[in-house]
Amino acid sequence: MSRPGTGQIVGSFALGVVLLSTSTVLLFGLVAKQPCADGRWSDGRQYRRLCYSDIVPLYGTEHLQGGRLPFLNACPAETDDHCDEYPVLTMYLMRVGAWIGTGYGGFFYANVALLSVLALLTAWFLYLMAGTRALYFALAPTLLIYAFVNWDLLAVALATAATFAYLRDRDAASGALLGLGAAAKFYPGLLVIPFVLGRVRQRRPAEATQLVVWSVVAYAGANLPFAVAAPHPWATFFRFNAARPVDWDSLWFAACQRLHGGTGCAWSPHLIDTVSLLAFAAVAVAVWFLKHAREPDFPRWTFGLPLIIAFLLTNKVYSPQYGLWLLPWFALALPDWRLFAAFEAADVAVFVTRFTWFGRLAATSGDPAFAGFHGAPLGAFELAVVVRVAALVACLVVWVVRETEELPAPTTTGSLGMVLSRASR
Fold first, then answer.
1. pLDDT tens, position by position, 125-183
2. Mind giving me the DSSP string for 202-254?
3. What are the tens digits of pLDDT across the range 48-91?
4. What would the mean pLDDT of 363-377 be, rounded to a whole number?
5. Nearest Cα to 300, choosing from 396, 408, 402, 191?
6. Are 267 and 247 in contact (CB under 8 A)?
7. Beta carbons of 332 and 161 less than 8 angstroms apart
8. Exposure string for 350-377, b = 16+ CB within 10 A, e = fewer
9. pLDDT for the residue 278
10. Do residues 309 and 302 lie in contact, with contact meaning Cβ atoms separated by under 8 Å?
11. Quick one: pLDDT band at residue 417, thresholds 50, 70, 90?
12. Which of 64, 164, 212, 231 has its CA 20 to 30 A from that of 342?
């Protein structure tokens, strides 16, 4: 057996640094969320101590305490239409978490374990593609504050694995992973567009078709059994999001609030859906043509970054943890530490002002749990949202004007990378 070379040793050390960094950030994230883990929030700790997580209350609102199977077993009659409100794969990740850990605390820690595995897989795949640029993901404050807020790391891991498969010319696997990602969260489905455009640019229509077909097959395979067996519960996700009003963190809310005042928005959700879709298409097309004019041969797959940014800028919902979607793309398509730092600073500012404003709002409403609590005013929260929008627009501009950088090959791919690379030949 030959001894490992210097390059392999250095590469293994670099991979170890990436995985250790990810683990450390996740540990700090767990410490930050731990005060809220048991669900005893009567003292207002979720906003006072900034430990809020959707995972804790959804254990109850999704009725996972027993053996209920999402979609297939009905929610209690007194439940509103928000039960089973997530896509299929996300709902069943929750179900697995509830099988592993019982009670609010057990459910929370079971999901922490599952989400941590997904984060480490994401970091590993990023290292295989971009070397130590994976630290853009591993060391991100966004990962610390949002890893355990919701289940978005499932979609992030699937999208990152799909990107790895695409860059290794495994188009069927890439399409299938994107389809599964879309069955967990919508955004991985967007990546079908740049990946197909890349194959078309390479004059490989068979591979482009393969990618589309397998993405549809995987998405349908995950959804059809539930759509056929329980069509109304399965469609809850679509009904809920169609009727959902503008989200606090969106630019839509800031605009509506500034025009009309109050803490709600009277604009029709369906009207906003239409306008935001048109705005998304307009931004995406404009960015594409501007980039093509400056760099005709740019790698089409990198268009995934501006597509996600355009979606976040124009959509009526920007849930706090959506920043996780962007982290891999700083490593893959925009490795600029200044833009990364600007986005991260703004994302943290939104986090702090959002949740302390919720506490302030509760205090104003007379909630005794927040008596004497002085959180951020609404104006500060909206300012943080606008600053984050400015950071994202700056990312779009720089992506357009800067020549695309090549991905650096890691010194060694490690055992997983070698297995996957051989499989792709």
1. 999 999 999 999 999 999 999 999 999 999 999 999 999 999 999 999 999 999 999 99
2. TT-HHHHHHHHHHHHHHHHHHHHHHHHH-HHHHTHHHHHHHH----TTSHHHH
3. 999 999 999 999 999 998 889 999 998 887 666 579 999 999 99
4. 92
5. 191
6. no
7. no
8. bbbbbbbbbbbebbeeeeebbeebebbe
9. 97
10. no
11. very low
12. 164
The two tokens of residue 279 are 């705005």
| Contacts with 288 (C-beta within 8 Å, 6 or more apart), sequence order | 303, 306
Sorted by sequence, the CB contacts under 8 Å of residue 185 that are 6+ apart come out as: 87, 90, 152, 154, 155
CB 184 within 8 A of CB 222: no
Question: What does the alpha-carbon distance between residue 94 and residue 115 come to, in Å, rounded to a whole number?
Answer: 11
HSE at residue 244, side-chain half, CA atoms within 13 A, is: 22
Neighbours of 250 (CB within 10 A): 24
Distances (CA, A) of 20 to 33, 49, 117, 162, 315: 20, 27, 13, 23, 35
